[in-house]
Every structure is written in C-alpha cells, then in structure tokens.
Amino acid sequence: MTLKTLWHRLGSPRWFYQISRPWIYVLGILALVLLVTGTVWGLVFAPMDYQQHDSFRIMYVHVPAAMVAQSAYIVMGFAGVLLLVWRMKLADMVLATVVPFGMSMTLLALVTGAVWGKPTWGAWWVWDARTTSMLVLLFLYFGLYALRQAIARPEAAARACAVLAVVGMINIPIIKYSVNFALTLHQKASFTLTEAPSMPPEMWLPLALNVLGIYCLFGANLLSRLRLEILRRERGTQWVRDLVLSGSA
Amino acid sequence: MGPGSRVERVGVSFDSFADFIAMGGHGFYVWFSYGASMLVVVANVVVVRRSRLRCIRELTDMARRQRNTEAV
After folding, report:
1. In this complex, do B59 and A240 lie within 8 Å of one another by their Cβ atoms?
2. pTM of the prediction?
3. Contact at 8 Å (CB) between A53 and B24?
4. Which residue of A has its CA nearest to B8?
C-alpha cells in the first residue's frame, strides 16, 4: 500500500474499524506486562534514594502519568490540524476520545505530585512554573470537554475543539521548559538524548518500563475509544448494521 | 530533590514485609500514589469496556427492529 492510499483510507472510519482490532490486544498485553514488571521492580527492587528515601518510588507512577498526559495533548493538537486543514473525520473522533484519558492522567500527575511534594518539599501544592503549567493543561482538557458539550452542531463543535486544541499546544513547550525557569522546585530533566542518565540503571529501568507501558495503554485505550466512537457516529450506516447483526462488532 | 546515584542495596530493598508497607515512614504517600494510579488505569479500561458493551447491545436491538419492520 502506498502512502497516498493509506492517507485516503485513514479518512474512512470503516476501514479503520476493521484494521484496528488486533492492535488493541497487542498494545493491551504489552501495557499489562510492562506496567506490572515496572511497578513491582520500582516498588520492591529499586534501590532506595539516599536523599528522599522511599518517597522517590512515587516517581514510577508520577513521571509516566505526566508524560502521557502531555503526549495525549500533542496527539490532539495534531488531530486538530488534520481536522482544520483536511477535514478528516477520524481526526475529530481522535479529538473527542483523547480528552477523558488525557484529563485523568493530568489529574493523576497533579495528585501524585502533591502527595510526593508533601514529604519532599514540605507542601502539598507549590505555585511553581511546572505545577502551574500542568494545572493549565488540566483546564485545557476541561475546556475541550465543556466546549464539545456546549455546542449543539457537531461540525461547529468539531472546529471549535480543533482550534482550542491547536492554540493550547503553546502550553506544551511551557511545561517542558518550565524546569529551566527560575521559579521552580522541580528538578531539571534527568534524561536527555545527549547525556547519560544521572541515576543508576536499577533506578531508571523500572521507570522506562512504566513509561513504555503507559504509552501502550494510551494506544490501546485510544483505539478502543475510537472504535466505540466510530460505532456511535456511523450507527445509521449499513456496514454497522451488518456488523452488529453478525455479532462480530 | 532528585534521585541520587548511590546504590545502597542490591535485590529486594526491604528487610521485612512490615518494612515494605512502612516505606521508611512514607507509606501513606507511596501507597496513596500507587493506589490512585491503579484506580485511574483500571477506570480507563473498565469505562470504555462497559460503554462499548452497552453501545453494541443498543445497536443490535436497533438493527433487529429495523430488519423486522423491513420484513413486514
């Protein structure tokens, strides 16, 4: 299949519905294996941090949640562009279906951050650059959810959400570089492409597994939500009718 | 803050199960975080699964009714 035909087929919810099913299983099983291994390793086997003692183990859930919350937003930003420029049907479905997952992960990152902040910084909440920009991310997710509910005409809602998603992308580099601003208690990035990590492998490997695991979960969750959204939006079509009657939906 | 680079022990990092639960006095913070994460992950999976089953049931009923009226 050439790139061009792939591009055209991506515009077809029916085609997407048919090819996406096995990927949910592959990604779902990968997510389960990676998350269980990473979590047990991080909780039980990773060596204790000499400064923070055992509260550093919150890192293994906090960092993956925060990373995937931002990546989910980036996915929506790209979907927004696809929708505004090429009017791709599937792009609006992505925009609608990423919101609950991204919102829950942003909330989780903020909550685990607060719970980590208490024993480490001595406060549940600090208005530093990163926590504040993550709070803005949460409000963007709330905004996208509310906007879709507020506009009755689906095409108008789709365009409005796409515009908000694209404009909100400005917040992503702000989150990323917020740790380099003066007003922050967050440490700078421990992992960069150019330098070796500043912690030993026994400590960062479980984190890497949980990060990969949460991305697989995001993939599986996005695909299954998309398939549900396709069924809902195409409910009047013959192919959906045939599909549910054959019992293979 | 920031995880340091000194490896203190190899293998299981706790001397006993009670030690593991206590998390060096930070048990509440650690277990609350892991509990909340588990909840969010499971909720994301369960919510989609339930709405999917409900949606398919509704669509199947709808399609059956339509087929029956067409047959008449």
Report:
1. yes
2. 0.88
3. yes
4. A47
Q: Using the Cα atoms of residue A198, residue A201, residue A207 and residue A209 in order, give the sign of their dihedral.
A: positive
ipTM attached to this prediction: 0.86
Residue A1: per-residue pLDDT: 60
d(CA A58, CA B29): 8
How far apart are alpha carbons A124 and A114 in whole angstroms?
5
In B, which residues are within 8 Å of A227 by CB distance? 52
How far is the CA of A45 from the CAs of A60, A115, A245, B14, in angstroms?
12, 22, 50, 8
Which residue is associated with the tokens 């055209």? A8
Looking at residue A117, its amino acid is: G
Listed by number, the residues of chain B in 23-42 with a beta carbon closer than 8 Å to a beta carbon of chain A are 23-26, 29-30, 32-34, 36-37, 40-41
Q: Hey, are the CB atoms on A225 and B48 less than 8 Å from each other?
A: yes
Query: Which whole-number Å values give the CA distances from A37 to A49, A85, B3, in the listed order?
Result: 20, 42, 20
Buried b / exposed e over A188-225, threshold 16 CB at 10 Å, is eebeeeeeebbbeebbbbbbebbbbbbbbbbbbbbbbb
Pull the structure tokens for residue B10: 């190899």
Distance CA A32, CA A213 (A): 7
- How much is the pLDDT for A63? 94
Token pair 């269980």 in the structure block, residue: A36
Q: Could you tell me which chain B residue has the CA closest to the CA of A238?
A: B63
Amino acid at B53: L
- pLDDT tens sequence across B25-72: 888 899 999 999 999 999 999 999 999 999 999 999 988 888 888 776
Residue A153: CB atoms within 10 A of its CB come to: 9
A149 to chain B, closest Cα gap in Å: 18
Report the C-alpha dihedral over residues A64, A69, A75, A81, rounded to 10 degrees: -150
| Nearest chain B alpha carbon to A58 | B30
Taking the C-alpha atoms of residue A77 and residue A82, their distance in angstroms, rounded to an integer, is 9
